[in-house]
Amino acid sequence: MTQQTPLRRVALTLAAAGLPVLPLRAGKAPFGNCRTCADNACGGRPNMKTAGPCHCPGVCHAWAAATTDPRVLASPPWEVAWRRAVCVAYHPGAAGLTVVDMDDTAAVAWARETLPTTRTVQTTRGEHWIYRGAMQSHNAVRPGVDIKSTMSYARYLGPGIGALATLPEAVRALAIKTPAAARPAPHTVNVPALVRGGRCPHRTAAYLDRGIAMAEQRITAASGAVHATVYRTFLAVLSTHGRCGCLTDSHMQRLFTAAQAKGETPRHCADAWTNAFTTLGL
After folding, report:
1. pTM across the whole model
2. What's the pLDDT tens digit per position in 100-126?
3. CB 12 within 8 A of CB 82
């Protein structure tokens, strides 16, 4: 019998508790589609409305691959993915949950003043507040805050503390508020790509934010060849910021949101991100 990897053991435990899980690779990105399912050639899950794997045996379709089926999680293709994975993620919406992802201390301070207390999980830079109830996911609903529920995934960082509260209207209202004022146009900053293990130059949030804003602007301005523009933009971002661990889920989701606004599907975004990782050898 093949020995279980530590991440797969965690995944099987969560799945047994009803939480649909999936592995994430370096960069906290989902694994790309297999060749059979590339460009939706399999014809499955075109609308990405529910969680669960397609009929292929691979770890496909980003968040929609999340499953509670122990046979799938222990299958040979998934075992290969678990050995390459860096963490376990889950699809909150499929479990009837919503994660309010606060990416910095300012966002956490806002939540403590504004939202009802609920189960809290510490993250690298902020906190996840988990509520009982699902809604459509939304990114950047306010500075440093994303909502992850249906059609999204969140990293599993532990059980957290506190009892689950019911999803409040204050969180639902965040998704329909008037968007915040646009950022000032960023100016170009040229910095050579780091080698793996090199010294990180992104010690201020402003530097990294300018880079992500420039990438969003490049995607938004594309008038044609959107697929190619998205891929080249992801490649540029990862070549500069992908080796030092500064990128967060929030940064990646900002880029995915910009691409989807130009007509890209979540699947195409995940494929482009994964292909960029592969090209750079990350």
Report:
1. 0.63
2. 999 999 999 999 999 999 999 999 889
3. no
